[in-house]
C-alpha cells in the first residue's frame, strides 16, 4: 500500500512539472524536425499551395548578405549592406535578417570573401508576411503537418537567438501596426486610459501614440524594439522602471494565436494562466501574441543628465576613484525615482542618460554634487549637461544612437542588499574592476522596479527584479571579419571570467531574459527563478506539441540544435 501511495504521489508531482506530458509527446513525435534536403521536406508544389492559402504572402528568403557573393555579386548593393550592417533599419525591414550576428553562424556573411558560398544556413527558409490571424494559423498547421521548425520574428532585435533558426518557417509580424487608444478602459482592478497595439508596433511608435493623448506607456529604452513581443513578454525594463516598474506590470490583455490554431484572449478574467505567463514569463514560448493592451499614465516632466570623461592623463587609481564615487552616489540617485544608463571600460566612462521622471533639475544637481566635487578634486576634465523637458518623449529622444551587431553580452541582476553594507560594496568594486581590467566594456543600468513601483502585480516577472538595484552586463566586442572560433571563445570568457563572479554577488538575483548570457548554465533559475515549473506546466497546456522553441525559453532543454543546424529532441 505504501509503495502504491508513493508511486501515485511521484506520478502527480511529475505530472505537475510537465514531465509525463512531455514523455507522451516525445514518444509520439519524430526525433528531429524535417530539414532542407530530407526526403520529407515539402516539394515546391506543396510550398505553392501554402502560399495560396496565406494570400500569397509566403516569402522564400534570400539572406541579406547575398549581394556580397557570387553568382549574385553586386558591388553597390554589397557596400550598402556592409555600411548598414550595424544599423537597425536594414534588419527590421528584411523578412529573415536578425540583429545578432552570433546566431547567424556566418551564413551568407557580407564580410566573407565574394567567392565563399552564400547559403541560407541559420536564417529561416521561408517567412510569411502576416497581415491576418489566419496567416499564422495556416503556417502553424503547415509546420505541424510537415514537422518543420517554427519561428516568430518581428524586428529581429533579440540577443537570445529566438528570431531565427536553420530549416525553419517563420511568421513575420513586423507589419502589424494597428494601435487603438482607450480613454476609459475598464477591467478588474483597473479603470483608466489604455493603449492596444498589434505585434509589429515598436517602442517609438508606442511613445508617439501615448504622447498624442498626453500620456506615457512603460516602454523600452531602445525605440526600435518590438513592444508586444519578447520585450514585454520578458518583463521589459524601462527608463520609467524606478517609478512605474516593469512593462509587464501594466499588461491588461493579450490577443493570442495558440499553436493549436485558436484565437484567444488572455486577461485577468479569461485564460488567466496564459495571461500570467505572457506577462514576464519569456517571449516566443506559450503562443503567438497578436496584440497587447497596456495601462497608460499621465505624461510628466523629465530631467535628463549626461556626463562623460576619459582616463587620459589619469592614473589607474584616480580613474577608479572617480568610478567608485559614482557607484557610491547611485543609491541616492535611485532614491529620487531616477534611472541610470552608464557604460565604461578601462579608457572611458559615460552616464548617458540619467532620466529623472518628475524630478527637478535642482534635485538631480544636488544629488550629483558630491560626485562632481570628487571629479573636480581629482582634476578630471568632464563634460556635463543637465536639461529639463516638458514631457517624456522629448527627454528620451535620441536614445537610439548606438550600433547593433558586433558584441556579446553577459549580465546579472544585482540586489539592493549588496550595496547596503561596506563589505558588499567593496566586494562589488573589486569584482567590477577585475571585469573591466580583464578587457570588458560594461553596461551598468541603475533602476528599482520594485513591487511598489509596479503596483504589486501578479505576473511571471522574475522576482529578482523586485529587489534589484542594477542590471550589470559585461560586453565583449568582435570585428565583422573575426572567425567563429574567436567569437565563441569570447562568449566563453564572458560566461566564465565575467558572469561567474557576478553570480556570486547576486545569489538568487537572477538575470534579464532579454539581455544576458544566452548560454548561462543556470538559465532556468537565472531567467525564471521560482516561476519556472509553473511556467513549464502552462507551456505544456498551451503549446502541447512544443512547436515554440528557444534555447533559454521555458522547456528549451527538451530540444537541441545538432551539428548540421537541425532541431532535435534532446536525449
Automatic annotation (TrEMBL):
Cross-referenced SUPFAM superfamilies, in alphabetical order?
FAD-binding/transporter-associated domain-like
Instruction: Kindly list any coiled-coil regions of this protein.
Output: none
Task: Classify the source by domain of life.
Answer: Eukaryota
Q: Pfam families, alphabetically?
A: BBE (PF08031), FAD_binding_4 (PF01565)
What UniProt keywords apply to this chain's record, in alphabetical order? Oxidoreductase, Signal
Among the GO molecular function terms of this UniProt record, one is: FAD binding
Q: Which Gene3D superfamilies match?
A: 3.30.465.10
For this protein, the record's InterPro entries field holds: BBE, FAD-bd_PCMH, FAD-bd_PCMH-like_sf, FAD-bd_PCMH_sub2, FAD-linked_Oxidoreductases_BP, Oxid_FAD_bind_N
Q: Where in this chain does the record put each FAD-binding PCMH-type domain?
A: 119-299
Signal peptide (UniProt feature, chain positions) = 1-18
Family of this protein: Belongs to the oxygen-dependent FAD-linked oxidoreductase family.
Task: Give the PANTHER family listed for this entry.
Answer: FAD BINDING DOMAIN PROTEIN (AFU_ORTHOLOGUE AFUA_6G12070)-RELATED (PTHR13878:SF91), GULONOLACTONE OXIDASE (PTHR13878)
Q: Please state what the protein is called.
A: FAD-binding PCMH-type domain-containing protein
- Give the organism the record lists: Lentinula aciculospora
Organism ancestry: Eukaryota, Fungi, Dikarya, Basidiomycota, Agaricomycotina
Amino acid at each position: 500500500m505504501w509503495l502504491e501511495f508513493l508511486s501515485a504521489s511521484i506520478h502527480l508531482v511529475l505530472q505537475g512539472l510537465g514531465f509525463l506530458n512531455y514523455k507522451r509527446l516525445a514518444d509520439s513525435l519524430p526525433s528531429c524536425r524535417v530539414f532542407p534536403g530530407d526526403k520529407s521536406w515539402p516539394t515546391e508544389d506543396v510550398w505553392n499551395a501554402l502560399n495560396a492559402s496565406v494570400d500569397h504572402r509566403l516569402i522564400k528568403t534570400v539572406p541579406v548578405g547575398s549581394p556580397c557573393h557570387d553568382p549574385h555579386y553586386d558591388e553597390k548593393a554589397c557596400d550598402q549592406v556592409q555600411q548598414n550592417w550595424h544599423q537597425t533599419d536594414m534588419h527590421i525591414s528584411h523578412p529573415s535578417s536578425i540583429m545578432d550576428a552570433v546566431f547567424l553562424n556566418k551564413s551568407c556573411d557580407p564580410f566573407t570573401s565574394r567567392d565563399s558560398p552564400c547559403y541560407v544556413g541559420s536564417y529561416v527558409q521561408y517567412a510569411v508576411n502576416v497581415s491576418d490571424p489566419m496567416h499564422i494559423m495556416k503556417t502553424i498547421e503547415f509546420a505541424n503537418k510537415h514537422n518543420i521548425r517554427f519561428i516568430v520574428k518581428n524586428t529581429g532585435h533579440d540577443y537570445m537567438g529566438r528570431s531565427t533558426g536553420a530549416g525553419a518557417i517563420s511568421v513575420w509580424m513586423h507589419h502589424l501596426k494597428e494601435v487603438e487608444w482607450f480613454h476609459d478602459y475598464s477591467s478588474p482592478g483597473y479603470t483608466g486610459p489604455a493603449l492596444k497595439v498589434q505585434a509589429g508596433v515598436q517602442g517609438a511608435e508606442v511613445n508617439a501614440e501615448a504622447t498624442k493623448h498626453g500620456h506615457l506607456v512603460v516602454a523600452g529604452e531602445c525605440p526600435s524594439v518590438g513592444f508586444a513581443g519578447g520585450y514585454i513578454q520578458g518583463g521589459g525594463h524601462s527608463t520609467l522602471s524606478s517609478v512605474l516598474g516593469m512593462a509587464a506590470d501594466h499588461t491588461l490583455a493579450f490577443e493570442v494565436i495558440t499553436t493549436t490554431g485558436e484565437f484567444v484572449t488572455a486577461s485577468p478574467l479569461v485564460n488567466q494562466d496564459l495571461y500570467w505567463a505572457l506577462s514576464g514569463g519569456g517571449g516566443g514560448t506559450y503562443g503567438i501574441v497578436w496584440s497587447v493592451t497596456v495601462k497608460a499614465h499621465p505624461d510628466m516632466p523629465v530631467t535628463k543628465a549626461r556626463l562623460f570623461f576619459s582616463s587620459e592623463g589619469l592614473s589607474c587609481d584616480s580613474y577608479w576613484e572617480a568610478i567608485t564615487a559614482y557607484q557610491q552616489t547611485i543609491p541616492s540617485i535611485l532614491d529620487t525615482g531616477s534611472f541610470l544608463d552608464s557604460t565604461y571600460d578601462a579608457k572611458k566612462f559615460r552616464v548617458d542618460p540619467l532620466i529623472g521622471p518628475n524630478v527637478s533639475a535642482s534635485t538631480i544637481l544636488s544629488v550629483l554634487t558630491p560626485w562632481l566635487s570628487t571629479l573636480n578634486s581629482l582634476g578630471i576634465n568632464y563634460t556635463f549637461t543637465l536639461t529639463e523637458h516638458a514631457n517624456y518623449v522629448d527627454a528620451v529622444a535620441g536614445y537610439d544612437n548606438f550600433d547593433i551587431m558586433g558584441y556579446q553580452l553577459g549580465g546579472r541582476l544585482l540586489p539592493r542588499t549588496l550595496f547596503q553594507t561596506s563589505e558588499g560594496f567593496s566586494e562589488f568594486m573589486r569584482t567590477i574592476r577585475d571585469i573591466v581590467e580583464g578587457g570588458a566594456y560594461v553596461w551598468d543600468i541603475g533602476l528599482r522596479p520594485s513591487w511598489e513601483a509596479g503596483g504589486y502585480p501578479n505576473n511571471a516577472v522574475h522576482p529578482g527584479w523586485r529587489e534589484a538595484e542594477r542590471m550589470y552586463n559585461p560586453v565583449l566586442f568582435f570585428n565583422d571579419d573575426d572567425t567563429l572560433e574567436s567569437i565563441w571563445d569570447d562568449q566563453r570568457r564572458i560566461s566564465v571570467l565575467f558572469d561567474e563572479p557576478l553570480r556570486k554577488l547576486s545569489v538568487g538575483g537572477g538575470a534579464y531574459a532579454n539581455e544576458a548570457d544566452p548560454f548561462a548554465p543556470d538559465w532556468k533559475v537565472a531567467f525564471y527563478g521560482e516561476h519556472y515549473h509553473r511556467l513549464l506546466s502552462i507551456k505544456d497546456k498551451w503549446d502541447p506539441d512544443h512547436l515554440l522553441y528557444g534555447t533559454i525559453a521555458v522547456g528549451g532543454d527538451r530540444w537541441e540544435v545538432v551539428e548540421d543546424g537541425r532541431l532535435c529532441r534532446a536525449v
